[in-house]
Amino acid sequence: MNQPALTDSHGRAIRDLRISITDRCNFRCFYCMPTEAMEWQPKTEILTYEEIIRLTEIFVSLGINKLRVTGGEPMVRRDVEELIGPLAQIPGVEDLAMTTNGHFLRGRAEGLKKAGLQRLTISMDSLTPERFALLTGRNELHRVLDGIDAAIEAGLHPVKINSVTIRGVNDDQSLGFAEMARNKGVHVRFIEFMPLDNGKVWRREMVMPGDEVRAKINAVYPLVPVASASLSETARRWKFADGAPGEIGFINPVTQPFCGHCSRIRLTADGMIRTCLFSNVEHNIKRLLRGGASDDDLAEFIIATVEKKEARHHINDPEFVQPLRTMSCIGG
User: Fold this and answer.
1) In 103-120, which positions are buried (b, 16+ CB within 10 angstroms) versus exposed (e)?
2) What is the pLDDT of residue 195?
3) What local confidence, expressed as pLDDT, does residue 81 receive?
4) Which terminus of the chain is less hemmed in, N or C, by CB atoms within 10 Å?
């Protein structure tokens, strides 16, 4: 496709759209959505599938070629396969993925694949039932593990596992995840703990640097680097030196920011464009969408918004202010 590239004022081509379709989730991970008394967005404020498809078509016409459907938990929204199908058919979409907690995959993974989903990322931070229940508020590890198997069986390759590593909480799980990668051929990504938690418990000393996790794994299962597919790739990737299947990656936004090559833009479930995961500014495209704006008007708004994308996040600055909205509201 010879599409133009959406470009921000810092010269970065924006190719990757993260689409949150709900702020709701059936888990309560303490770093994301820890309380039971969440105030959900009213249904009337959430974009309909038709609205999401229309906006996505415009984004793609402007140069977006990678889509990721997120939540909250996207599969708590009814008939998500009916959204995946039309998204997969948009000319110019080269990659269509979903991030999920894996709870609903058994019985649905095959349908998602048939609808056009290409890849899955499953968020999972522990391989032991007790720790999993502590982290998520739900004793459902068995269902998530079964969901991973269902995704593999459905051919949603590569299946990726995202694990947020928190010092003193689950930093003893890295070897278990490495063994899962070797045994199942999945790609495990260790993500540094970021200040997006609802309980505001984030502290710098809780951040487990990716290099430290890698050293733990490398001491038992030697790793060799994998060349990055592009400069905008967020994970530093490694494979096993002995040729075992699977892959290990490290996403290090705190200790090794990758803002200079960021290619991402986000659409929240309630119709706001976010130019950075850590931004304190949102851009209301829903107001235009529901106010009768033409596709050209919406495209102009997207172009103008992308130009405002921040040069970098400010996690490591003394004056950093944590975003008011948490990950469950922003989308992964």
Assistant:
1) bbbbebbbebbebbbbbb
2) 79
3) 97
4) N
The token pair that represents 253 in the structure block: 């936004």
Residue pair 232/7 in contact (Cβ under 8 Å)? The answer is no
Q: Enumerate residues 6+ apart whose C-beta is below 8 A from 40.
A: 23, 24
Task: Please state, in angstroms and rounded to a whole number, the distance separating the CA atoms of residues 237 and 200.
Answer: 30
Residue 4 CB neighbours (<10 A): 10
What pLDDT is stored for residue 289 in this prediction?
A: 98
Dihedral, 204, 206, 212, 213 alpha carbons, nearest 10: -140
Beta bridge partners of 99: 121
Residue 263 pLDDT > 60: yes
* Element (DSSP H or E) covering residue 114: helix 109-115
Residue 108: partners with Cβ closer than 8 Å, 6 or more residues away: 75, 81, 150
CA–CA separation, 176 and 162 (whole Å)? 13
* Amino acid type, 183: N
Computed from CA positions of residues 236, 244, 108, 161, in that sequence, does the dihedral angle turn out positive or negative?
negative
How far, CA to CA in Å, does 56 sit from each of 47, 77, 114?
Answer: 12, 18, 20
> What share of the chain has pLDDT > 90, as a percent?
77
List the domains of the chain with CATH numbers: 6-330 (3.20.20.70)
Beta-sheet strand order (sheet of 95-100): 223-225, 236-240, 247-251, 187-192, 159-165, 119-123, 95-100, 66-70, 16-20, 264-267, 272-274, 283-284
